[in-house]
Amino acid sequence: MTQPLGMAARTVGHGGARRRGWPWARIACLLVGGVLLADALVLMAMGFFMVGVTVPAALGLVLCFVGARWHGVRDGFHRLRWGRLAWRTGWLLLAAWACSVGVFWAVLVQQVNALGQVDKAVTPQAIVVLGSGTPKGQPSPALRARLDTAHALAAAHPQAWVVVSGGVDFGETLSEGQVMGNYLREQGLDPARILQEERSTSTELNLQYSLPLLQAQGLGLDSAVAVVTSDFHTLRAQRIAQKIGYTCALAVAAPTPLYIRYNAWLREYFAMASSWLLREL
User: Fold this and answer.
1) CA-to-CA dists, residue 166 to 120, 142, 209, 258, angstroms
2) Which domain holds residue 197?
């Protein structure tokens, strides 16, 4: 039976809009996926291949593909028996993940603010600075911020030992501990106060391998220790220290440079999840 001309026009128009339209979800896929993928590729080019880089890269690639082939992917799902349910479930899971990132960041901000209020009332016996990359034998921006924070803390507590902790980066010849110690000495910190740990390759090992250096100075797991790290890393560092057995350890937050803050906080989300799965926390 022939459709009325108006009805046919509306059908064609609606179908054309369906084929040519750019719904908000498709635009969001391309934007979010493009940012995740580009950011991960830049970090991979710099030699970073940890979970916090590879997982966002994979997610970004999937989102870019879905955004670029929106109608084909959607129609392919809809042709399957449970396809419509799977398509909608996938979007709900993605929304839930985005919400979980927001919640994690909110908790992290609350943690940083709380620690900032507490650390002023604590007198540390030792200051442990966690490593964070030393490209070309120089502290990375994040590591420099940690060292500057530790230097100010050491000036306020002249009786505290300062432990700089970190092994040799991929492609480097100097350990993070050596580079960190050099930086603090150049900033005028008394070399006699600096203890260098140069074997560790993770936060857990930072704190484990720093312990013998503290014990050699008469300190231990029950001593007041300030663990200086980047703001995004404080929550995980605090929990790892507690699991190792430090009973009086307090994470001290160093600011993350603005231009790497988005990436660092996103990577920490995945790093936190990875540490939880590996039972490091």
Assistant:
1) 26, 14, 9, 24
2) 115-277
